[in-house]
Amino acid sequence: MKLFLVVCVSALALSAAAPQAQKKSATAAPKTADKTARKVVDASKPMAIPPDAVMSEDGDYHYTDPQGKKWIYRKTPFGVTRLDDSPERDAAKAAAASGAGIKATEDGDIVRFERLGPFGVWKWEKKKSELDETEKAALRNAQAGNKTASKQD
Q1: Cβ(91)–Cβ(100) under 8 Å?
Q2: Distance (Å, rounded) from C-alpha 75 to C-alpha 10?
Q3: How far apart (Å, rounded) are the C-alpha atoms in residues 105 and 113?
Q4: How many CB atoms lie under 10 A from the CB of residue 134?
Q5: Residue from 57, 48, 50 nearest 81 by CA
Q6: pLDDT tens digits for 30-63?
Q7: 142 pLDDT above the threshold of 90
Q8: pLDDT digits over 85-133, tens only?
Q9: Fewest 10 Å CB contacts: which of 89, 110, 128, 149?
Q10: Are 115 and 121 in contact (CB under 8 A)?
């Protein structure tokens, strides 16, 4: 009885596999014709930064292609990536540089920072002498906010 069941299952599996083999051979011809009609890009080859690209101070390469489209090329540990250079990206970068979204609290010589991140609130503290530009901007924004709040009282 078990032998009969094994034979039936094997026959079913083979009969189901046969039409797929026929489909592959039937569809193989149109695919070869499509390859000649359109350009195929090999994704296994690493992307190269164009030689005309200009390196900016933040380490990115900016390039405008012959169609007038602007691109940003960035080196990552996984290879080179290409990003669309859009005005929204510049606005987001300017907002980050101005310290927007960072809450600063001054406590003597130490400044405590809070920023909403993807996994919750990020908190850190630094001495005033060790602040970077973004943190200095956040501290100025917090001080300006405190001055306007005290004027309203």
Answers
A1: no
A2: 52
A3: 6
A4: 16
A5: 48
A6: 555 555 556 676 777 788 899 999 998 888 999 9
A7: no
A8: 877 776 766 666 666 788 999 888 999 999 988 899 999 999 989 988 8
A9: 149
A10: yes
Domain limits of the chain?
Answer: 54-87, 99-152
CA 42 vs CA 45, 46, 70: distances in Å:
6, 9, 23
Band of the pLDDT at 141, cuts 50, 70, 90? Answer: confident
Total-model pTM: 0.41
Tokens of 15: 């009969």
Asked if 116 and 75 touch (Cβ cutoff 8 Å), the reply is no
The one-letter amino acid code at 37 reads A
What does the radius of gyration of the chain's CA atoms come to, in whole angstroms?
30
Q: Which two tokens stand for residue 133?
A: 């530009």
Helices (H), 38-126: 87-97
Q: Where are the alpha helices (DSSP H) in the chain?
A: 2-37, 87-97, 133-152
E strand or H helix at 103, and its extent?
strand 102-107
Best CA proximity match to 145, nearest among 102, 115, 110, 107: 102
